[in-house]
Amino acid sequence: MDAALALMLLVPLAGAVFQAVWGLPAGRRASAVVAAAAVAGALAAALYAFAHCGVAPLRVSFGGWFSFAGFSAAFSLLYDRVAAVMTVTVSFTALLIHLYSVGYMREDKSFSRYFCYLNLFVFFMLLIALADDLLLLFMGWEGVGFCSFALIGFWHEERKNVNAGVKAFITTRIGDLGYVAALAMVVGIFGEASLSGLAAGAEKLSPGMAAAIGFCFLFAALGKSAQLPLSSWLPDAMAGPTPVSALIHAATMVTAGVYLLMRLDPLLAYAPSVGATAALLGGATALYGACCALGQRDVKRILAYSTISQVGYMFLAAGSADVTGALFHLQTHAFFKSLLFMCAGIMIQACGEEHDIFCMGAHLRRRYPGLFALFTCGAAALAGIPFTSGYFSKGRTLADALTHPDPIFLVAFALGALAALITAIYVFRMYFVAFFAEPADPAPLHFDPALLKMQLPLWPLAVLAVCYGFVNPPEFLHLRAWLDNYLLGVTGPVPPAVEHAELFVEILDALLALAGLTIAWGLYRPARRPEPAPAGLLTAGLGLDALYLKRLAAPYARLAAFAWRGIDEDVLDGATAALASGIGGLSSAVARLGNGRIAASLLTLFAAAAALLLWVATGWSPS
Predict the structure, then answer these.
(1) How do the residues of the chain divide into helix, strand and coil, expressed in percent and rounded to 5?
(2) Which DSSP state fits 473?
(3) Other beta carbons within 10 Å of 500
(4) Which residues have CB under 8 Å from 283's CB, separation 6+?
(5) Nearest to residue 508, comparing CAs of 621, 433, 401?
(6) Which of 66, 153, 164, 419 is most open to solvent, judged by the fewest CB atoms within 10 Å of its CB?
(7) What is residue 441's DSSP assignment?
(8) Cβ-Cβ contacts under 8 Å for 585 (sequence gap 6 or more)
(9) How many other β-carbons are positioned within 10 Å of the β-carbon of residue 446?
């Protein structure tokens, strides 16, 4: 088992090293084969570890990292059934994205650099999934941040792509301040920094200290997972290649925050206010993302806001202390969202790099029927059409909120339910406009056999998007809930209240999905020749970016300008220049006294003698 866990991390890391050193001279074909093989190796190791994973958690240490003043950090891993499911999901989804990327990046000049970043991204995400030591986890946490920055700004020839990468990097670093603060508190209290140690010692913490640590970790999770108020970086992250969007949005970076909360579940049990805050922010973000998606025309930005919304449901489940429910929706979201993003990439390339859904239409459906079928599977799951994977997993998160005894969770449930209705509307708006409309100014359609090959890795995701919900169906269907049973012992059993509420919630969810479909059909059916709404608050993300620019960035820029011109240039530089000028003048005066003339030398001698006599006359004594 130790070897499998080590290989799971080392194989994608070795793939990244190969791409960095030998990828360019080896050629495109070798680069693609090695990159895909590295992730396939990680998947094989993950499957082997999954097959041999017991109920008891396994802690593995590969030696120390560093130590000082009695504190030591180790390369320690914590492998349990939650980690087992997560690592298989990450490596499986990443493998399909790598295979898709071979076709998508077929003409890019930086082929090996792209796969270097992609392999490195997988390594760091698997490190987050496996790390027990919080410092080691932070290494993976920052690693995915760096890789996202590099991949979002991959086409750095255009300034806007670089700006998007910088925005993602800075925003997530703001959240990471919470992680550093929490880490400092954990080390100060326990003398170590491990998840297993934190779980074992959580009951010894005072309620206030548990809440302080929990809120700091929650702030870090909000930044990494693009939840309110740190959500504005994710739509701009669409500047990167589409497979990057699929990887970041599926089971990697944006779900890292949710996964951290799952790992911290023993701590959050002693800090209920943290869970309530996470659930409320999750419900609010679900509604915010859904509303903003409704105002977008760019197919990738629609899906980006959709990710913000769907991760909100994961926060809702994690805040309700339902680790299984959060992990279940994380998995289903990984399947249908990565499917939709990769479909969007094919749509964009087929339409000559056109992103606007109002410039696509029925000719896309007729020319690429396989793409239409794949997109239909993903859209149905995202909208929560009955018996798809998203229908079951979203219903589970809403049932968690509905049955929680704290009244604040009822507010979160209402927000999530309203978001479910709007989700169905924007999904079918995108679906009808992009595949059924007859646009007045259609984008020129290109038929490329490479686009057909790119569809092949998407079929497993389409099957999972439709069918994976039956891995963990609600109790009223009287089918075996495999995920609940598998995680039993690692997480608690499903509360009876949740099981009883699931029937009501699933009926409600089905009605909301069908109502959203009906509304979208009425507004955007082909016969109406739908036109895009004018740009407004929804298009601009409800003004969140403008608010940050006005209230945070602009005052900071003014303060920076004052520090630069008012303090640095006027005060510090002015004082330095004045001091230099004074010293220069004094030096010139002294230099004139030492010019070698007898009169100047005698004058200096007499002045020194006068000063000495004056000193003696004023009462100087050698004692």
Answers:
(1) 75, 5, 20
(2) -
(3) 13
(4) 312, 316, 401, 411, 412, 413, 414, 415, 416, 419
(5) 401
(6) 66
(7) S
(8) none
(9) 12
Collapsing DSSP to helix, strand or coil, 371 comes out as helix
- Beta bridge mates, 66: 73
- C-beta separation of 472 from 482 below 8 A: yes
d(CA 550, CA 546): 6
Give CA–CA dist 128/87, Å, rounded: 10
Q: Which contacts (CB < 8 Å, 24+ apart) does range 97-102 have? A: 97/243, 97/246, 97/247, 97/250, 97/338, 97/342, 97/457, 98/35, 98/36, 98/39, 99/36, 99/456, 99/457, 100/243, 100/246, 100/342, 100/345, 100/454, 100/457, 100/458, 101/241, 101/243, 102/32, 102/36
End-to-end CA distance of the chain: 84
Model confidence over 16-62: pLDDT tens digits? 999 999 988 998 999 999 999 999 999 999 999 999 998 999 999 98
78 beta partners? 59
| pLDDT tens sequence across 269-285 | 999 999 999 999 999 99
Per residue in 43-62, is it b (16+ CB within 10 Å) or e — as a string?
bbbbbbbbeebeeebbeeee
For residues 75 and 62, is the Cβ–Cβ distance under 8 A? yes
